[in-house]
């Protein structure tokens, strides 16, 4: 393989015991930035291998999307011999990622209290549903259920319709991001103390953390937030609006942008109308403003208008399909679609580092039964 620029985490070794989404995403982030990640799967493989269609060679696309830049091996951790293999791997590891139900690793003698004594520099990251204790401690967590419990569904959807799940596993994904952030914080602290620590990223906590600005609004006003469709609860026009063709999304955040919008549409007087002259007034009178804008936009082509407004300084976008978004010229420019030998195609790393960029070294399903030498981990 052609040598690549060592990543920011070159030399860091990760044992990834996790499965499904949050933990594997954390491992993939660390791997993209140079860590040597060894993913340990049970004999039947990660559950998401079956989460399709579509499938390639019997493995679902869902799995391919989360397990790049890892080499895999299979261990049956219910067996004493395979647990010994794991301990051998941990002796040379910096990070352990796992999302076993609380008590499982402890039952096998692999809990943090035991591992931290044997491997004092190990950063042990657990992705959990609700944490280990408290009223819901130890219960399993699932993205959609947390969306319901954390209030996310209550503010998602149209005002006159039922609460709606966000159409992607946002809680699982932000939990994976928080896990990666926690690992990096712990590794940074280890530089001072020489000691690892336990890092926990819980779906429940992560779900609640997504509630801005609804939580801030409730803390200040005491008013229960409701569903506002595509509109922002605090500012307007920050919403989809109809045109002669496809809808566009206006994201007007201040008075200057609103004035530019009004002038461009030939209704400059709206910017001085007391109902719409300030952000607060526009938010209160949003229904009237939306109707006025849509009547003016009824003769405009949506996509062309979005391009023109963006160029004029009005935050605005066409509402694209997933294929259109992934094939957009700027997506290619930002290197947000990655292709690797063997037909792999996936989303690129969103964090861009100038000297140590992300690299793509192993497609999913690459096998390996040991860590690479530290100096060769990025070759």
TrEMBL record:
Organism domain of life: Bacteria
Keywords on record: Plasmid, Transferase
Transmembrane segments: none
GO molecular function, one term: CoA-transferase activity
Protein name listed in UniProt: L-carnitine dehydratase/bile acid-inducible protein F
């Amino acid at each position: 393989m052609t040598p690549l620029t060592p990543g920011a985490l070159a030399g860091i070794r990760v044992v990834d015991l996790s499965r499904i989404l949050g933990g594997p995403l954390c491992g993939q982030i660390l791997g993209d930035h140079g860590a040597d990640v060894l993913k340990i799967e049970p004999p039947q493989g990660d559950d998401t291998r079956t989460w399709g269609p579509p499938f390639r060679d019997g493995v679902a696309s869902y799995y391919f999307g989360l397990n790049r830049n890892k080499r895999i091996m299979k261990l049956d951790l219910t067996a004493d011999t395979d647990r010994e293999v794991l301990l051998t791997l941990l002796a040379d590891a910096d990070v352990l990622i796992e999302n076993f139900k609380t008590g499982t690793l402890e039952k096998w003698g692999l809990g943090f209290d035991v591992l931290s004594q044997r491997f004092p520099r190990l950063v042990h990251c657990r992705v959990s549903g609700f944490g280990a204790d408290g009223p819901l401690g130890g219960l399993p967590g699932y993205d959609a259920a947390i969306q319901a419990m954390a209030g996310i569904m209550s503010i998602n959807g149209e005002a006159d319709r039922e609460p709606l799940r966000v159409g992607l596993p946002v809680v699982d994904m932000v939990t994976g991001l928080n896990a990666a952030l926690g690992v990096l914080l712990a590794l940074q602290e280890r530089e001072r103390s020489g000691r690892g620590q336990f890092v926990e990223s819980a779906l429940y906590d992560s779900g609640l953390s997504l509630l801005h600005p609804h939580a801030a609004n409730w803390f200040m006003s005491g008013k229960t937030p409701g569903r506002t469709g595509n509109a922002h609860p605090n500012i307007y026009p920050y919403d989809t609006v109809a045109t002669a063709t496809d809808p566009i999304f206006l994201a007007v955040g201040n008075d200057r942008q609103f004035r530019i919008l009004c002038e461009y549409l030939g209704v400059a007087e709206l910017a001085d109308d007391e109902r719409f002259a300030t952000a607060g007034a526009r938010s209160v009178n949003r229904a009237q403003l939306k109707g006025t804008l849509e009547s003016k936009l009824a003769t405009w082509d949506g996509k062309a208008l979005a391009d023109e407004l963006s160029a004029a300084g009005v935050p605005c976008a066409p509402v694209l399909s997933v294929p259109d978004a992934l094939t957009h010229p700027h997506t290619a420019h930002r290197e947000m679609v990655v292709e690797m030998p063997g037909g792999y195609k996936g989303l690129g790393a969103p964090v861009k580092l100038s000297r140590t960029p992300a690299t793509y070294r192993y497609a999913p399903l690459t096998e390996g039964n040991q860590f690479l030498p530290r100096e060769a981990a990025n070759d």
